[in-house]
Each structure stands twice: as C-alpha cells, then as structure tokens.
C-alpha cells in the first residue's frame, strides 16, 4: 500500500482498534500483526510500532524497579539479626 495514497483511518476504526488494545494478550497479538503483517494502514502500523516500543520501555522499567525494590528489601532483611 502506497503511503501517499493510503486511506484515512476513520473514527470507527480507531474505536475498534482501541477496544482490541484494551483486551490483554489480544492487544499484543494485534500490535504485532499490525506492525509487521504488512496489510495494515500505514498510520495504524506506525501507531502499533510506537505502542510496542512503549510496551518494551515499560517492561524494562518495571524489571529495573522490582529488582531495585527486591534488593532493598533483601538488604533490610539481612540487617535484622535473630
């Protein structure tokens, strides 16, 4: 699909898109399909790629946060002697 001649994504399509993205697991599958499937509207494909990037950033930050929090809890627990 030529990006210059791609049809505009209508409001109804965006409503369905957001509804699908609200469903766990389905959202990841749909984002992967829209990002790398090749048949999606270029606007929707770019939106899906940006959403996947934000998901990865969120997962990485969550892992860092829980690692730091877990290390702090372990350090606090090791200070107590029984």
Tags for this model:
0% strand, mainly alpha, elongated, 82 residues, single chain
What this model shows, in words?
It is built from three helices and no strands. The protein is mainly α and 82 residues long. It has one domain (3-79). Helix 2 crosses helix 3 (42-79). The longest helix is centred in the last third of the chain and has 38 residues, at 42-79. The termini are far apart. The mean pLDDT is 91.
The oligomerization state is single chain
Low-confidence residue ranges = none
Encode the helix/strand succession as letters: HHH
Overall average residue pLDDT: 91
Percent range for β-strand residues = under 5%
**Number of contiguous helices:** 3
Strand element count:
0
Helix/strand layout:
Elements: H1 11-21, H2 26-36, H3 42-79
Helix pairs in contact: 2-3
Summarize this entry quickly.
The protein is mainly α. It has one domain.
